[in-house]
Amino acid sequence: MDMNLEIEKVKVENKAVLKNLMELYKYDFSEFDPEDVNEHGLYEYMYLDHYFTEENRFPFFIKVDGKYAGFALIREVEESNRTYYSMSEFFVMKKYRKSGVGKRAAFRLFCKFHGEWEVAEIEENIPAQAFWRKIISAYTNNEYREIKKESWDGPIQVFHSRGSI
């Protein structure tokens, strides 16, 4: 199945679309996260607005054949005299999973932001850990390391992005 994959920066006028996709993501994630919906029946991602007001945050849609298939939220983090990119949130809708969309999208995003990366998963999310270890291993030819931080409950893959693929 040959699919046209696009990575599209989210424009502020499309913030509502990202907000809607975020609800699907948060619902999907609810099996690992104790958070409940609010009085309006929504999860509401508390950092959404920051992606349109802070210059070190980068929101992207993942599209397949012109249709929304997911999103990625990337942050540039300055911490302890170093700067790295963080995959804050990454979502591919179920219909597009296991088709290579996630892998292709991740590779393109890694290539878009050259430098050091950290991709973290929560301890309970075993499927995400398996996905990211497989993707990052393929992307880096197994040239990554896994670390733990006191500030995070789960594994973190650390690697450098390379040029275009």
TrEMBL record:
Keywords: Acyltransferase, Transferase. Its EC number is 2.3.1.-. GO terms for molecular function: acyltransferase activity. It comes from the Bacteria. PROSITE patterns: GNAT. CDD domains: NAT_SF. SUPFAM superfamilies: Acyl-CoA N-acyltransferases (Nat). The keyword Acyltransferase applies. InterPro entries: Acyl_CoA_acyltransferase, GNAT_dom. The keyword Transferase applies. It is an enzyme of class 2 (transferase). Residues 5-151 form the N-acetyltransferase domain. This is GNAT family N-acetyltransferase. It comes from Bacillus yunxiaonensis. The lineage of its organism: Bacteria, Bacillati, Bacillota, Bacilli, Bacillales.
